[in-house]
Amino acid sequence: MLTILVTGATDGIGLATARSLAGMGHHVLMHGRSADKGRVAVEAVRAAAAGKGEVRFLQADFASLAQVRKLAADLQSLPRLDVLINNAGCINLSRRVTADGLEMTFAVNHLAPFLLTNLLLEKLRASAPARIVTVASGAHRGQAIDFDDLMSTNDYRMMRTYGRSKLANILFTQTLAKRLAGIGVTANSLHPGIVSTHLGQDNWLARTIGRVFMAVAGVSADKGAKTSVYLATATEVAGTSGEYFAKCRPAPLEGAPGAVTDETAEHLWSVSKTLVGLT
């Protein structure tokens, strides 16, 4: 039985991922922003798992770096942590700023998992073999990190900002995999497919457009969760690291020309460390 943390697990892909993993008999830690939604989600996963796996909820708002740090601190008491699935994310119709003064989409989608992962690395190392799985997106296609405007202050566009945050997930994973080489901890990212979720739940227009689009082109959350579950548990990828997957297979990266390089990834790592206050 593995101990697995799934962030953003109260609905959508995260909930489906937690449900599948608990049904396999694993100990699943379900993270979410809302305690009320967390209670409902845990009950649903427990019922679906029928006693096969242990399930509990952990609350933290990823728009707050302090809450991310508290979540990581609370997890230090775990006997082990075998898998971290960075699934939580958001998308906003208009530019929003966190309490830390950071643009919301970039903060929640990239900086929060960057910080959480780094704070949990020693626990994962101690539990090796261990895995880190980060849910990115095909929305990274054609995107490049704008280091002169990481916070989208000058020109905010919903899908461009979201796509850049997902590209950041991929670059983070590639750099992380290099840092973890040889210590029994792997790191991979993935595209879940175009999935009907509640990413835009706080934006009525984004939600409405999303529902129409998903009805035509989207897949279910259960199908969207398959690659996350595969990377977290499949024996055939136990030694695979630094890859980007779609439909449970390695997939090509399609950032803008020159956007996916070791130099860019290392620069993003350095800037991210400064932004979240890591030394």
The fraction of residues in strands falls at 5-15%
Oligomer: single chain
What's the rounded overall pLDDT mean? 93
How do the strands line up in the largest sheet? Answer: 3-2-1-4-5-6-7-8
The Cα radius of gyration reads 17 Å
Helix content: 40-55%
**What characteristic shape results from the CA principal axes?**
globular
Task: Give the termini distance in whole angstroms.
Answer: 34 Å
- Biggest beta sheet summary: 8 strands, mixed
Give the low-confidence spans.
212-217
H/E element order: EHEHEHEHEHEHHHEEH
- What's the tally of helices? 9
Structural class: alpha/beta
Count of individual beta strands:
8
Kindly list the characteristics that best describe this protein.
alpha/beta; globular; single chain; 8-stranded mixed β-sheet; 279 residues; 8 strands
Write a brief caption for the model.
This protein has 279 residues and is of the alpha/beta class. It has helices spanning 12-23, 35-49, 65-75, 104-126, 158-180, 204-217, 221-224, 226-233, 262-276; strands spanning 3-6, 27-32, 55-59, 83-86, 130-135, 185-191, 244-246, 249-250.
